[in-house]
Amino acid sequence: MKTWPFSHRTRILAVDDEVGFTRVLQLAAVQYDIRTENDPRHAIEAATEFHPDLILMDRFMAKMSGDCLAKTFEAHPTLHHIPIAFLTASVPCDADGHYCAHLDGRPVLMKPVSIEQIDQCVRECVKR
Length: 128
Fold this sequence. Notes:
Elements: E1 11-15, H1 19-28, E2 33-37, H2 43-50, E3 54-58, H3 66-75, E4 84-88, E5 102-103, E6 106-110, H4 115-125
Parallel strand pairs: 1-2, 1-3, 3-4, 4-6
Antiparallel strand pairs: 5-6
């Protein structure tokens, strides 16, 4: 019998085209239920099936950018409410060259990301 959504561990959908990164994330972040999707074109379907509390999404993927995918989630009738945090290996900067901790109102986590950073992001983004 499913108890979700009444009591469950935080569900994170990790969308990143780097298979090695998503494997390490699954092994390291054992306190979360993590589903990975390495093809961003399948992320909407994965989110519809998985019902994540948070989406961690790479900004720069070969088949679709994270920015474009985030806009697709925003426009989706049943998934638009799910918070998104960007993962990136390139430093996002504002017009003055200062590091941006948020982009379009979303948290930005720099790769390599630590479990502590993911925990902080979950506390910031997931409201229970």
